[in-house]
Amino acid sequence: MAIKALNEQSFFILTSLVETPRHGYGIMGDVEELSEGRVVLKVGTLYGMLDRLVSDGLVELDREEPHNGRLRRYFRLTDDGLAALMGEVDRQRANATAASVRLRAIRPAARPAAEGL
């Protein structure tokens, strides 16, 4: 059975949860840092994605803690989430390798033309 590819946001959310459970704002900040600013999650988007990842069994609620009169929900990666993330890393690595092979094949031909300009 083929593993479903993760979108970039889900990839970074799962990556954020590898080391430790995190609450929503912690995930948002970590995703932005991990992606070097390429992925910036809004609160509504994050919680919608977390709900989907929970439904898919990739993430689960770790605990709820009171914070400023509200409950702060912490999420953690499940074993299935870890497997999905590892599969996605392998898939992206294979894709990058395939593209690199093709690019290496054209680079020698492209260099002389570019140098002659």
Describe this structure in words.
- The protein is α+β, with helices and mostly antiparallel strands and 117 residues long.
- It has four helices and three strands.
- The chain has helices at residues 8-16, 24-34, 43-55, 79-115; strands spanning 22-23, 59-67, 70-77.
- The chain has a three-stranded antiparallel β-sheet.
- It is elongated.
Rg from alpha-carbon coordinates: 19 Å
Number of helices: 4
Strand arrangement, largest sheet?
1-3-2
Q: Kindly state the mean pLDDT as a whole number?
A: 90
Which sheet architecture does the biggest sheet show?
A: 3 strands, antiparallel
Record field, number of beta strands: 3
Q: What fold name stands as the CATH topology?
A: Arc Repressor Mutant, subunit A
* Strand content bin: 15-25%
Structural class: alpha+beta
Overall spatial form: elongated
Low-confidence stretches: none
The CATH class assignment is: Mainly Alpha
Q: How many distinct domains?
A: 1
Helix share, percent: 55-70%
The CATH architecture can be given as Orthogonal Bundle
Q: Which sequence of SSEs, written as H and E, runs from N to C?
A: HEHHEEH
Q: Specify the CATH homologous superfamily.
A: Winged helix-like DNA-binding domain superfamily/Winged helix DNA-binding domain
User: N- to C-terminal separation?
Assistant: 50 Å
